[in-house]
């Protein structure tokens, strides 16, 4: 029964994403993590074996564990991000399993948006390739706090340290320049099991953690509580019952930072001020609460506050603006053009907006900029300038992933058009303007 | 509704000063989802079957809006072959919290000739029509379901907010990317959004949460002696729904249910787990998934769940 007690004492949750090209061995790595953490159960394995056998394959195809849809199995491709769950004695994991080819950028952006760690896979025989640079760039743009470079297929290069060291150095240099704060390089063979869950006997020159060990020990949540507090109001709770005639609580999830009873706060965009009188944390009254807890705040003054407002400590309240400059990843099939009227969803607030300018489009492969592309199409990353109908209390994405991010939505049919990150990023450096205009394919 | 006082404090085993336990993180995320829907939709409804996932959903909704009442009604699709203990639990819970329950009845559809009984007697797939018609007639624009991505490979692809067209269909190829915690609930009149607050929970998370929050469940989740018979490798409850057949032998066994649903397709497992702790210990070492162990309808074909979801099933 050890496993029961161990699993029950697991305290934290790590959300991470995997990125890898088609043949980098991502499915094998994911399969091994799931399999070796005993997260693949017998009936799932039996189903995979049955289908593999029916297709005449000799060994069970572990990719079938992750390819859930009829079309995916028929075509042998992965269509969309899938989320998988596994646990070890030390931690629970939510893995955003992002497909490596079709619709590549938007899938990785989707997976990386909630990830605290990204695993970028590289084939040791090929080293850092174009795709690897795209993965690194997306991880940097989305500000994933930890990046793991998994140099896979070490068995095919005789487990040579020099091969690993060269790839690790090249990647670390590139990713650091993009602003990735922490990079851990691990030499692995997903197929043979080297350094995935068990340390490798074939690479005694490597003294670092295995992939799983690193996933289990990397710190989480530190970035959320180190930032100034932000509290987007989701819903106003007013029971108006005999028992609670005067209760008025502002319900929301703390987006960043720490809130305390007695703290002076400002409500944006109105600018009204008050003091936190009470914090109700899902049924119990507390003195302190932190991101990402869902709580209800009660304020000392009866002021007009509704969904979409932002409560922040008066000492560190954000400025409001109607002119948003941001880097966006375009995720829809219909293009985003200059002059387009859109909806902008930021935290709990949705406002009308106009795309004023698209100053540049970025090519992830070499980080070159295409000035004034006129429009962004699916999977493009570019800079935009958007004018909103109402002021927004918007942080820079570099300061807060939660209050610096937004969606652009097509008001006509509700399609999510673009994922936006406010403020500067490496995509705003206008250093290399290249006038080649044939776009890039996936 | 009691809440353990310790869980909001930093866990000594956690690795950062303000880390949340995994259950607190999942709870916080689910509550955020409930509040988003309350803030953005006109007429949401919670699918409530009296099963453990929907019970956990209701518990989360109660916490999310306390001390105000839950601002949603409930909907149950009654197959006509539900476990009496579960229906009793359902009605008692609805009354206790002063909620409003709509029941869409498969039996009524069959009696009116609008649905035909299947040769195998399974009514689970028949739920889709009463469900989607209830959504249309009662004009629900957001429908909470207790589906979890760990349940089944098609569900692993499901979004937290899943847009359904006027025919309630799910098109896995045309899902909106879901970025950060920014859920896009825009929909045209006639369309609705399915919402899954428990997407990121596993079966074990659900049980641990039930234990932590001390949530009452229908008795059939715990080991008890019951008259069952075997069909396609599953222990099914004998009853008026059409089992057992002459060739199937009824016996009394010590069993419990891991899921509750239609009696004709929900199998029991042999178990002596009579308490929450015993159930958690059993699940933690089980080598079978919840649905693999107990759902006959998922075994109909490799893509059974996906096909039903496309038609409007949860």
UniProtKB/TrEMBL annotation, chain A:
Keywords: ATP-binding, GTP-binding, Nucleotide-binding, Nucleotidyltransferase, Transferase
GO molecular function: ATP binding; GTP binding; GTPase activity; sulfate adenylyltransferase (ATP) activity
EC number: 2.7.7.4
Domain of life where this protein originates: Bacteria
CDD domains in the record: CysN_ATPS, CysN_NodQ_II, CysN_NoDQ_III
Positions of the Tr-type G domain: 11-225
Any one biological process term the GO annotation gives: sulfur compound metabolic process
Pfam families associated with the record: GTP-eEF1A_C, GTP_EFTU
Signal peptide span: none
Full protein name: sulfate adenylyltransferase
From TrEMBL, chain B:
InterPro entries in alphabetical order: PAPS_reduct_dom, Rossmann-like_a/b/a_fold, SO4_adenylTrfase_ssu, Sulfate_adenylyltrnsfr_sub2
Domain Phosphoadenosine phosphosulphate reductase: 44-267
Sample GO molecular function, one term: ATP binding
Source species, domain of life: Bacteria
Key words, A-Z: ATP-binding, Nucleotide-binding, Nucleotidyltransferase, Transferase
Enzyme Commission numbers on file: 2.7.7.4
Protein's GO biological process: sulfate assimilation
Signal peptide per UniProt: none
UniProt keyword Nucleotidyltransferase present: yes
Disordered: annotated segments: 295-314
Enzyme class: transferase
Family: Belongs to the PAPS reductase family. CysD subfamily.
Protein's UniProt name: Sulfate adenylyltransferase subunit 2
């Amino acid at each position: 029964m050890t496993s029961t007690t161990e699993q029950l004492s697991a305290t934290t949750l790590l959300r991470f994403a995997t990125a890898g090209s088609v043949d980098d061995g991502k499915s094998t790595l994911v399969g091994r993590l799931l399999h070796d953490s005993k997260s693949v159960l017998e009936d799932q394995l039996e189903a995979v074996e049955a289908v593999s056998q029916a297709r005449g394959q000799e060994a069970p195809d572990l990719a079938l564990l992750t390819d859930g849809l009829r079309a995916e199995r028929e075509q042998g491709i992965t269509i969309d991000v899938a989320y998988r769950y596994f646990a070890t004695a030390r931690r629970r994991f939510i893995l955003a399993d992002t497909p490596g080819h079709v619709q590549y950028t938007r899938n990785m952006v989707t997976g990386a948006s909630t990830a605290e760690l990204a695993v970028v896979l590289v084939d040791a025989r090929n080293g850092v390739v174009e795709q690897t640079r795209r993965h690194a760039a997306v991880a940097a743009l989305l500000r994933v706090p930890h990046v793991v470079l998994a140099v896979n297929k070490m068995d095919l290069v005789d487990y040579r340290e020099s091969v690993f060291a060269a790839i690790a150095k090249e990647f670390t240099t590139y990713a650091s320049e993009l602003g990735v704060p922490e990079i851990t390089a691990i030499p692995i063979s997903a197929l043979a099991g080297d350094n995935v869950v068990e340390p490798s006997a074939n690479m005694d020159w490597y003294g670092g953690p295995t992939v799983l060990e690193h996933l289990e020990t990397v710190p989480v949540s530190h970035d959320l509580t180190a930032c100034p507090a932000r509290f987007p109001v989701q819903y106003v709770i007013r029971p108006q019952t005999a028992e609670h005639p005067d209760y008025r609580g502002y319900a929301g999830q703390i987006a960043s930072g720490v809130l305390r009873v007695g703290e002076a706060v400002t409500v944006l965009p109105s600018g009204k001020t008050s003091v936190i009188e009470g914090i109700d944390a899902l049924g119990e009254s507390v003195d302190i609460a932190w991101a990402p807890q869902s709580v209800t705040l009660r304020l000392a003054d009866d002021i007009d506050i509704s969904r979409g407002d932002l409560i922040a400590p008066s000492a560190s309240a954000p400025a409001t603006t109607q002119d948003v400059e941001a880097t966006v990843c375009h995720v829809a099939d219909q293009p985003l053009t200059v002059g387009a009227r859109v909806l902008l969803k930021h935290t709990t607030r949705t406002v009308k907006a106009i795309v004023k300018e698209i100053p540049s489009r970025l090519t992830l492969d070499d980080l070159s900029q295409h000035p004034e592309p006129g429009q962004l199409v699916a999977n493009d990353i570019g800079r935009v300038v958007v004018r909103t109908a109402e002021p927004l209390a918007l942080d820079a994405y570099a300061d807060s992933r939660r209050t610096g991010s937004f969606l652009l939505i097509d008001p006509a049919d509700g399609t999510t058009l673009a994922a936006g990150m406010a403020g500067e990023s490496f995509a705003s450096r206008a250093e290399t303007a290249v006038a080649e205009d044939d776009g890039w394919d996936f | 509704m009691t809440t353990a006082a310790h869980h909001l404090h930093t866990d000594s085993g956690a690795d950062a000063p303000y880390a949340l336990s995994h259950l607190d993180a999942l709870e916080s995320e689910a509550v955020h989802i409930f509040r988003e829907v309350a803030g953005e939709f006109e007429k949401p409804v919670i699918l409530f079957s009296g099963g453990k996932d929907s019970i956990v959903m209701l518990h989360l909704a109660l916490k999310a809006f306390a001390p105000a009442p839950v601002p949603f009604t409930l909907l149950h699709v009654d197959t006509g072959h539900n476990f009496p203990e579960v229906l009793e639990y359902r009605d008692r819970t609805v009354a206790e919290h002063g909620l409003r329950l709509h029941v869409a009845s498969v039996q009524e559809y069959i009696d009116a000739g609008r649905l035909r009984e299947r040769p195998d007697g399974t009514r689970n797939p028949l739920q889709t029509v009463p469900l989607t018609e209830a959504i249309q007639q009662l004009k629900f624009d957001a429908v909470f379901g207790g589906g979890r991505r760990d349940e089944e490979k098609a569900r692993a692809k499901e979004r937290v907010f899943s847009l359904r067209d006027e025919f309630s269909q799910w098109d896995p190829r045309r899902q909106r990317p879901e970025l950060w915690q920014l859920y896009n609930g825009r929909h045209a009149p006639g369309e609705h959004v399915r919402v899954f607050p428990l997407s990121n929970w596993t079966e074990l998370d659900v049980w641990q949460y039930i234990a932590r929050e001390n949530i009452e469940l229908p008795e059939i989740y715990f080991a008890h002696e019951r008259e069952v018979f075997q069909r396609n490798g599953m222990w099914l409850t004998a009853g008026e729904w059409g089992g057992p057949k002459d060739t199937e032998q009824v016996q009394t066994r010590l069993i419990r249910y891991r899921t509750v649903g239609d009696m004709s397709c929900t199998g029991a497992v042999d178990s002596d787990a009579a308490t929450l702790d015993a159930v958690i210990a059993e699940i933690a070492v089980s080598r079978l998934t919840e649905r693999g162990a107990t759902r006959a309808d998922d075994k109909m074909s490799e893509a059974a769940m996906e096909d039903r979801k496309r038609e409007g099933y949860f």
